Amino acid sequence: MNQSISKGRLWTARVMSGIVILFMLFDSITKLFKLTVSVEGTVEMGFAENHVTIIGLLAFLSVILYAIPQTSILGAILLTGFLGGVVASHVRIDNPLFSHTLFPVYLGILTWAGIYLRDERLQNILHIKRRRAFKDNENFNRTNIG
Question: Where are the bilayer-spanning segments (predicted)?
């Protein structure tokens, strides 16, 4: 981890990732223990009751990989795929857009934002940089345009 990250940025990243980890742990554990509310919800989504444990296990493994710093990017990739499946399931049964269908998208955004804010490797891969001072942009434009 880069030591130049501010404490505020680091804690923001930790809170974002923590929300994802806690929610996904809760969701996966309720599925693994086949709690009634989780089984009913999964069956309402169109899955068979015997799929609940498999879905819970996949979610649990993905979130554990996400929670370990060395494997957090792999975990985020797996969670993104998992959450994409959740979106597709909500679309298929025509659930409300903002409260149900897009909720996994919100979690996906938190997943990647939490890593992005604390991991310089991901920042370098994505090349999303803050705008520099106006003077730097002006010098860039002068030297490259004409």
Answer: 12-30, 50-68, 73-91, 97-117
Confidence at residue 20, expressed as pLDDT on a 0 to 100 scale: 98
With respect to residue 1, please indicate whether it lies within any of the assigned structural domains: no
Which residues of the chain register pLDDT less than 50? 1-2, 133-134
Give DSSP secondary structure letters for 31-68. Answer: HHTT-HHHHHHHHHTT--TTHHHHHHHHHHHHHHHHHS
Could you tell me the residue range of the domain that residue 122 belongs to? 7-145
pLDDT of residue 121: 82
- Residue 69 belongs to a domain: yes
Q: Is residue 131 part of a domain?
A: yes
